[in-house]
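How it folds
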Amino acid sequence: MDKNLKNKKVLLMGLGVLGGGVATARWLLEQGAALTITDIKNADALNISLEKLKSYGGKIKYVLGRHEEKDFLENEIIVLNPDIPVHNSFVEVACKASKQIKNELTLFYKFSESQNIIAITGTRGKTTTANWTYHFLKSQNSNCILLGNDPEKPFLNEIKKVKEGTIIVMEVPSYQLELVDHNNFRPHVALITNIYRDHINRHKTMEEYAGAKANIFIGQQKNDILILNRENEWTEFFLNKKPKSQVSFTSENSIFTNEEKEDFKSKWGEHNLQNLLASSLAALSVGVTPLNIKNSISTLPQIKFREEKVYDNGKIEIYNDTSATSPDATVAALERFTNTGERVILITGGTDRELDFSAWAVSIKKLLRPDQIIFLSGSATEKMKKALGWQNYKEFDSLEECVNESLKKSDEMGGKSLILFSPSSKSFEKFKNEFDRGEQFNLIIKKLLK
């Protein structure tokens, strides 16, 4: 694929309503592509996105409410929206016809003015690690940018901000890595925080999921750096793929004393200590000094929707952890907060994604009593209750009812308490995504606690 898309026939598969499809469409049009957009949703369902593209008039051909095989044969380049799985009959038709298959990540890498990338993936901690890596890097180098996991800032929306020499800290989910091969993505630093059971509805098996994550280092060469978590059980899987890059482990990060690590863990929790070790090692890999890293720890940013404190009146603290879309993430948050000595009320539950809640249930039983949990109804919630095996549950159909019940429970407890909204699951039965769920939670808190 060359860098000239002018008059190239391009098919964007999946417009969606979250903004990424619109950003990709705009960027392709700016490159002069002859663009067709196809989506199985009809025009009414896509109205919010279609309105944003209205100004382009007749420059876009739309095929909505269906996909047609001929579109995948007549266009030269097929660009997949992140929601479109690679294992798709129409994609297979395009592959057999030797069409170029691209996505947002591979286009960004091809057309970006800088390929100096720190790419971060994993099941848990990747957003915090990416943000903290950027924070450390920014303390020493102003020519850097943070990308990823913000639906309002798709990669191709931000590409204009990248200049020659810019260091790009990029959070990369597994679905962006599915199309990566030896030739189309080579980050200078690749970091995998950990692998836990997740996204099985998309990747079908853990091996396929981990294999997608492994693509983050598949194009690296001997002068590149791969950072792994030696304590995670899937690390051996990555090492068996014989990475060509220099491998480092987060546990070998030696800039912190044991006392400093313990002090940080007591304030932020064990999982955030691991995020600190990973992010500081990534920053060290591109020349940030240990002194700058240590001086920047006191100003580490609170990451939105990740154990984010959204209310504190001295009696009740409320944390929004809507991005905890897996059982492990909620357990990590609970372990942090149950060690503070405050009484914790957990609001949890949501949409199932073929996750296993047996280990989650074991941890819950160690950390909480039945009356400390409030469930938001959903398909995952049913699995959670079955895994716990308790007789009685507080369960509600709306998030506002859950919050009201948690405030009532806090009053009954007396003294100081902590309310943690950490769903352990996805959100699609009641919300657009976890970000919408988090915004709704914050609006409810503002409404009820003015």
In short: The longest helix spans residues 270-285. Residues 112-299 form a domain with the UDP-N-acetylmuramoyl-L-alanine:D-glutamate ligase fold (CATH 3.40.1190.10).
